[in-house]
C-alpha cells in the first residue's frame, strides 16, 4: 500500500460536549498530542547536525508507526539520500525503495533523477540505540508491503521528501497522516537550519582560511606593508615593514595620526611620509616616492620607495577612504650601486676632460695661427691685385673648425656625465655672472654650424637688450645640448632656427628644427634621466639620454622653465626661459 499526504476525513462524534465544544476525551487527546508535539519539537531544536535530526525524526516516527526504513531525500546542488533502516534489509527491498523514491521525486517536479544516481549518492545511517533486531528465524522480505511519501516543506518550498517503508501491508494509518505531516514539517525546518548552519560554518571556515592565507602572504612579503585608518594612524605592519621602520628608531603610536606625530617629531623624513599618506586619504594613488629614512651623515642612507593607495569600504557605504595601504621597498642597495656608478663615471669623465682640454687648447692655438696667416696672404693678394685660387690654409682652417666643434660637443657630453650625479644628489652648483645672451647664442651657433654642413642654422635676435645674470657656462651647455639634438634628429639636413625674444620679466629662447619630431607619448618623459626617444624611423640615433635631463636641472636652478612642442608638420621646438634679472 502506498499513501500520500491528504486531509483527514470528517468524522461524526456523538460524545457529550463540554462548554467549549469538545468532549473531555477529545480535550485529553489534544493535550497529549500537544505535549507530544512539544516533546519532539524540543528534540528537533536541540539537533545541531543532520544525524541528530535523523535520530529525532526516527524516535518520533517510532512512537506512531512500525516501519522497516525511513528515507530522507534532500534537494540541492546534488541530491542527498539518507537511508535509515531499523534492521538489516534485503538488497532487492533496498533497490525497490530507491526506485520508488525516484518516482516520488519526479512526481513532485524535482529535477530529473534516476534510481542509479540516487543509489550512488545514498548515505546509510543506523543509530544503534534505535535499531531493532529481527526475531530468530525471521527472514527479510524482498517486496515492499507499504510505503508513505511526505514532502518536506519550509515556507511553502519543497526541500525534499520523507519516505517510510515497511515489509507489511497497511502499516501506515491514514488517520495519522496529519500528525506525520507535522513531524515532517518539524524535520524540514530542522534540516534547513542545519543546512544553513553548515553553509555558514563553511563560509566562516573559508573566510578564516583566506584570512590565514592572506596573513601568511603578507607576513612572507619581502616588501613592507603599512596600513592606516581613516585618520592616518598606523594600524598594521607586516614583518618587513617592522624591520625597515625599526632601523629608523621611529616610534609609531596606533592612536595618533602620522600628521600629528610628524609635528612633534625630530625625525626629518616623517613629514614626507605623512604627506604621502594624506594624499592617499584624499583618494590619490601615489607611486614610487623616494624617502630617505636613514641618518643624513651616512654615505648611502636607508632609502625607501613608497607607493600608497586609498583603502575603500567593500560595502560602498563610505565615499571617503577608510584607510591607506602603503608598500615600502628598500632601495638602498640600488642607491649604493648608483653611487658607485656615479663615482666611476665621475672619475672617467675627469680623466677624459684632461686630454680634451689639451686638444681644445692646441686646436684654438692652431686656428689663431692659420687665421693670422690667411689674413697676411689676403692682404698681400690685395696689394698685388692678383687673383689666385683659395690658399691651402683655408681648407686647413675649415678642418680645424670641425675639430674644434666636435671637441666642444664631446666636452658637453663629459660635462653632462659629471653633472648627472650632482643633479641627482641635489649638488649642482651655479656661478652667476653678467653677459649678453645674444653673444652666447652666436658663439654656440657658430661652433655647431662648423660641423653641421648639411644644416643651415639661422639666428633670430628679436630684442636689443640681451644682458642677463646667469651661469654662462651652464646656459651655453643647455643651448649646445639642444642644438646637438636638433642636428642629430634632422639627419637629412634642413634649417634650424635659434630665436631670442624678450618678455616682460624673462627671456625666451626657442630652437626649432624640421627633423623627425617627437611623439606626444614621450613628452612626459623626455627630460628624464637616460630617457631616449625610440621613434618609428629605422635609423638609430646615438646618445646617452642625459643632455635634456641636465638642461632641465640647469634651467630649473635658474628659476626658469623648459618645454617641448611639436611643430605643425615636421620637427620640434625646445623652448626655455631665463629670468631677466641683473
Inertia-based shape? elongated
Mean pLDDT level: 83
The low-confidence runs, each spanning 5 or more residues with pLDDT under 50, are: 1-19
How do the strands line up in the largest sheet? 1-5-6-2-3-4
Query: What portion of residues belong to β-strands?
Result: 15-25%
Characteristic key phrases:
single chain; 582 residues; alpha+beta; six-stranded mixed β-sheet; 13 helices; 20% strand
Tell me what you see in this structure.
Strands 1-5-6-2-3-4 form a six-stranded mixed β-sheet, with helices on both faces. A five-stranded antiparallel β-sheet has the order 8-7-11-10-9, sandwiched between helices. A five-stranded mixed β-sheet has the order 13-15-16-18-17. α2 (50-62) runs antiparallel to α5 (177-220), α10 packs across α13 and α11 runs parallel beside α12. The chain has helices at 24-46, 50-62, 91-107, 115-120, 177-220, 239-246, 258-263, 270-281, 332-384, 392-424, 437-450, 472-488, 547-557; strands spanning 2-4, 69-74, 80-85, 122-124, 146-154, 157-166, 224-229, 234-237, 286-292, 303-311, 323-330, 433-436, 455-461, 467-470, 494-502, 506-512, 562-566, 572-579. The protein is elongated and about 155 Å long. With 582 residues, the chain is α+β, with helices and mostly antiparallel strands.
Write the topology of this structure.
Blueprint: E1 2-4, H1 24-46, H2 50-62, E2 69-74, E3 80-85, H3 91-107, H4 115-120, E4 122-124, E5 146-154, E6 157-166, H5 177-220, E7 224-229, E8 234-237, H6 239-246, H7 258-263, H8 270-281, E9 286-292, E10 303-311, E11 323-330, H9 332-384, H10 392-424, E12 433-436, H11 437-450, E13 455-461, E14 467-470, H12 472-488, E15 494-502, E16 506-512, H13 547-557, E17 562-566, E18 572-579
Parallel strand pairs: 1-5, 3-4, 13-15
Antiparallel strand pairs: 2-3, 2-6, 5-6, 7-8, 7-11, 9-10, 10-11, 12-14, 15-16, 16-18, 17-18
Helix pairs in contact: 1-2, 1-5, 2-5, 9-10, 10-11, 10-12, 10-13, 11-12, 12-13
